[in-house]
Design goal:
- The chain is elongated.
- With about 150 residues, it is mostly beta strands.
- Helices cover about 0% and strands about 60% of the residues.
Length: about 150
């Protein structure tokens, strides 16, 4: 299971923080993920870029580079950090953090990674400055198919 793998997948976010109660805010989002993973035994380093075409009903593309350190092989868990870009805002100084757990089905040079994560994020980190410290915390579900050796 060691090596470098690249792939892509789908991601669903459900906002469970304070923002879910704001009437104009769409608390469901679907996105696409581009992924590269470097694994060696029980440790995996993963870099993803997520693209959400219409984040929070804003009509704008949100993209978010993120990185993870994951432990385990078939069943795994770990932590991650990322930043989001929506409109004019880019949260380099205020990153979001993630906890993630999943199951990675290895089939030779192909793997199917199915996971859930919890994302800790504030509205002001994504150019929602007028919302101050309202929570954008999200429960997410995703699946990524990767190829490699």
């Amino acid at each position: 299971s060691a090596g470098t793998r690249i792939g892509g997948g789908l991601h669903y976010l459900k906002t469970v923080g304070d923002m879910k109660d704001v009437p104009e805010f769409d608390d469901n989002a679907f996105g696409f993920i581009a992924s590269i993973a470097f694994s060696g035994g029980l440790v995996r380093f993963e870099g993803d870029v997520e693209f959400i075409p219409d984040y929070a009903g804003s009509g704008e593309l949100m993209w978010a580079p993120q990185g993870y350190v994951l432990l385990g092989s078939f069943i795994y868990g770990g932590v991650g950090i990322g930043v989001g870009h929506l409109g004019g805002g880019f949260g380099w100084q205020d990153p979001h953090y993630m906890l993630r757990a999943g199951v990675d089905f290895m089939l030779g040079s192909l793997d199917l990674d199915v996971f859930a994560s919890y994302r800790f994020e504030k509205a002001k980190d994504l150019a929602f400055d007028e919302l101050d410290n309202d929570s954008l915390n999200s429960l997410t579900f995703g699946a990524i198919i990767r190829f490699g050796g």
